[in-house]
Amino acid sequence: MAKVVKRDFDLEDEVNAYEIKQSRIFFERRKVLNEKSKEVWTFAWVGALIGTVILFPIFPLGAIVGGGIGYWIGWTKVTNPHKRRFIELQQEYPNINKVSKGKIGESKVSRAIEKGFGFDYFLINDITLPTNKAGSTQVDHILIGRSRIYCIETKHITGKFYPFSDSQWLWYPTQSRGNVKKKTYMKSPASQSIFHAKHLSNYLKKYIEGIPVQPVVVLTHSGSEWKGKFRDDCYIFNSESEFVTYVNLKESNKKPFLSKRGSERLADHLVELNRRMKKNTRD
User: Fold this and answer.
1) 153 in the same domain as 27
2) Are 52 and 148 contained in the same domain?
C-alpha cells in the first residue's frame, strides 16, 4: 500500500466507511428494481386503467397520469426499505452532512491511491504551496511516484464536461436521474492543475533538479464524464480507478528518480512546508 504522509481531514475514515455502505445500498436497490420490474410496471398498468376510467373524457391524458402515479406507487413500494436504510445510515454518521462534496471526492482519490500503489509511493493530501509574490495555492493531492510527481486536482460533481478555452470548461450539470440541465461555464480544473504543477516544479528546483511534475484532473463522481480529447498537457480521468491504472502502466519497469528514503524525505519536507504556510496564513 502507498504511504499517506498527510491525511486530508479528520473525518476521512468515517467518510470512507459511509461511502462503502451507501454504495452497497444503491447497488442492492438497483438489483431489487431489476428483479421486481414486473411488479412496478403492474402498478403502472393498473394506474393507467383506473386513470382511463376516471378521466375518460380527457383520454389519453387520464391513462398517462394514472400510469405515472401507478409507477410511482410501485417504485416507492419496492424501494422503501432502502430509503429507510439510507436514513438510518445518515443517523449512524451524523457528521457526514458537515463534509463538502469536494472533500468526499478527495477522500475517494486518497483511498484509491493508498490501495492501488506500493510502499514506495507517497501521498500528501490537501497541501498549500507558495506561488509568486508571496502568495499561496492549495493542491488537493501530491503523489510522489517512481518516475515523476503527480499534481492532482479532484472534482466531485455530476455532469458532462467539454473543453471551451484554456481557462474554462463547458459544463452540462445533471440531476440524479440524468436529466441534462442548462449549460454553464466553469473554471477549468485542468488550468488549475497546470498552475499548481508549475509552482510545485519551480519550488522543487531549489532542492532537486529534473523531477517531472505532471498535472492531472480526476473526476470522482459516477455521474460525471469528460467528453473532450485526452490532453497532453494535463490528463483528465473519469474515475480514480482509471487514474490508478494509468499510473501503474506508466511507471511499470521505470527506474526511480529517487530512492524510497529520498521520496519519503521529500514528502516530509512538503508536509513541513504546508505546516509553515498554514501558520503564516493564520499569523
Assistant:
1) no
2) no
Using CA atoms, how far apart are residues 116 and 124, in angstroms rounded to an integer?
A: 15
First to last CA, the chain: 37
pLDDT bin (cut points 50, 70, 90) of residue 216 is very high
Q: Which residues have C-beta within 8 Å of that of residue 75, sequence separation ≥ 6?
A: 33, 40
CA atoms within 13 A on the CB side of 204: 22
Q: What is the pLDDT of residues 79-123, one digit of tens each?
A: 898 888 888 888 887 766 656 667 788 888 998 999 999 888 999
- Is the same domain home to 90 and 217? no
Contact assessment for residue 266 and residue 3, using Cβ atoms and an 8 Å cutoff: no
The reply to whether omega before 60 is within 30° of 0 (cis) is yes
- Residue 237 Rama label (left phi>0; alpha psi -120 to 50; beta): beta
| pLDDT tens digits, one per residue of 4-34 | 877 665 566 677 777 778 788 888 888 888 8
Cα–Cα distance measured from residue 132 to residue 130, given in angstroms and rounded to the nearest whole number: 7
Where is the domain boundary, 97, 132, 150? 97
Helices (H) and strands (E) in the chain, counts: 7, 10
Examine the domain organization and report whether 129 and 88 are in the same domain. no
Strands of 174-264, DSSP E: 184-187, 213-219, 224-226, 235-237
Q: Which three cell numbers stand for residue 153?
A: 486536482
3-state helix, strand, coil in the chain (%, to 5): 55, 20, 25
Residue 164 sits at the vertex; the CA angle it makes with 159 and 166, to the nearest 5 degrees, is 120
C-alpha pair distances (Å), 62 with each of 54, 70, 73, 120, 262: 7, 12, 16, 66, 73
Q: CA dist 231 to 143, 168, 274, Å?
A: 20, 14, 29
